[in-house]
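Please review the protein record below. Tell me whether the encoded fold seems credible here:
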Amino acid sequence: AEGLDRQLFDAVTAQLKSRAITVKTGTLVDATIIASASKGDGEARWVKHRNRASVHGFKAHVGADADTALVEQVSVTPANVHDGREGPAALPDDPGDVFADSAYRGQHFAAAVRARGGVPRVAAT
């Protein structure tokens, strides 16, 4: 409720980046479903993915450095939020080439990548 998770994430990420010299080549963007600990969680939502069972929970939308796999950005939403809609929140500044699966195809995500100076590299299928 106080946003302490975001403050902690930003502080740890800043410390890791300050101790390494890196050349940014790209960003991997994807989302993962996280089951809620309780079916009574009012903020969680139901989602069904392909042939898997429905899950009540959340989705973590993650942007990670393509070379080091260091998570640079994360956004947590209810599980029913589409990856492509929330994808821009997982983009770091100056993302380089952005590699993502077909859930991120479309102009909404591509425009967000270009606005940050990146190049969208989204799988076609």
In short: The mean pLDDT is 89. Strands lie at 26-35, 45-47, 55-65, 71-78, 97-100, 119-122.
